[in-house]
């Protein structure tokens, strides 16, 4: 809701109610609050690609995957419906009732991502893949208690800053979906709500990229963390001893 509504204000307000930075902030705030809301219940699984990665690694039972995905997709779908309701009058005024995916009054990008006209499909795929690699690396680093993880209680805020940083640096080409759960359900909603099936054909049938590229990026990012960081982490006691700190032993 925070992310999509921030996009709606920028597009429908014609730049008078926010700029690109406000979109980045909106999604960062939304992620922070989502983690606070669900962190103690499910570990805050907000991203289908990351949830699938945890199942592959054995950190999450496969039997829980359907429930997590359904929760993510329903939440994202309802967020799109909520923002559509909030800004329906503004949408109608901006488009004269003609909801389009492309063109001077295109509004489908309020809800889902679309590649910039100058970006090839391969380039767009690589952008989403790389941004998701950075996302999962950041997540693993923030929660890495064997290394230099974020202070307890600050993880949600730092995660929001991580998403903000990805948007600031890697959002121009594709809108940084980096999450199948964030992109596909609102796309389905727009197909139902008046934009039609063009939401699946626009951008050289772009719709499948925000599903596959983040999934692959999450897996590769996890592998990079495992090879270059996690395998080199030392046990806490050993690391403290190397730095000259006493190692406490209990009988």
From TrEMBL:
**Record-linked InterPro entries:** Aquaporin-like (IPR023271), MIP (IPR000425), MIP/Aquaporin (IPR050363)
Q: Which GO terms describe its cellular component?
A: basolateral plasma membrane
Q: Which PANTHER family match?
A: AQUAPORIN OR AQUAGLYCEROPORIN RELATED, AQUAPORIN-7
Which Gene3D superfamilies does UniProt cross-reference here? Glycerol uptake facilitator protein
- Where is this chain's protein located in or outside the cell? Membrane
As recorded in Swiss-Prot or TrEMBL, the protein's gene is named Aqp7
Which terms are listed as keywords in the entry?
Membrane, Transmembrane, Transmembrane helix, Transport
Record-annotated membrane-spanning stretches: 20-44, 65-88, 118-142, 154-178, 206-229
For this UniProt entry, the molecular function terms from Gene Ontology, in alphabetical order, are: glycerol channel activity; urea transmembrane transporter activity; water channel activity
Give one Pfam hit by family name. MIP
Stated family: Belongs to the MIP/aquaporin (TC 1.A.8) family.
Query: What's the chief localization of this chain?
Result: membrane
What does the record give as the reaction this protein catalyses? glycerol(in) = glycerol(out); H2O(in) = H2O(out)
Q: Return the protein name.
A: AQP7 protein
Q: How does it sit in the membrane?
A: Multi-pass membrane protein
């Amino acid at each position: 809701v925070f992310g999509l509504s921030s996009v709606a204000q920028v597009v429908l307000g014609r730049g008078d109610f926010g700029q690109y930075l406000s979109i980045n902030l909106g999604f960062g705030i939304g992620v922070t609050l989502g983690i606070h809301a669900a962190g103690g219940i499910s570990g805050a699984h907000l991203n289908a690609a990351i949830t699938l990665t945890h199942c592959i690694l054995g950190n999450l039972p496969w039997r829980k995957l359907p429930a997590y995905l359904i929760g993510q997709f329903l939440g994202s779908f309802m967020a799109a419906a909520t923002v559509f309701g909030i800004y329906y009058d503004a949408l109608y005024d901006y488009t004269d009732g003609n909801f389009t995916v492309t063109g001077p009054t295109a509004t489908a990008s309020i809800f889902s991502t679309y590649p910039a006209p100058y970006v090839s499909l391969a380039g767009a795929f690589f952008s989403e893949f790389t941004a998701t690699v950075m996302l999962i690396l950041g997540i693993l680093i923030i929660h890495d208690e064997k290394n230099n993880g974020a202070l307890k209680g600050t993880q949600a805020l730092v995660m929001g800053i991580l998403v903000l940083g990805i948007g600031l640096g890697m959002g121009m080409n594709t809108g940084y979906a980096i999450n199948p759960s964030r992109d596909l359900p609102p796309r389905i909603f727009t197909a139902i709500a008046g934009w039609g099936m063009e939401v699946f054909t626009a951008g050289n049938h772009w719709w499948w990229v925000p599903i596959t590229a983040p999934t692959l990026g999450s897996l590769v990012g996890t592998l990079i963390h495992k090879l270059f960081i996690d395998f080199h982490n030392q046990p806490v006691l050993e690391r403290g001893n190397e730095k000259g700190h006493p190692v406490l032993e209990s009988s």
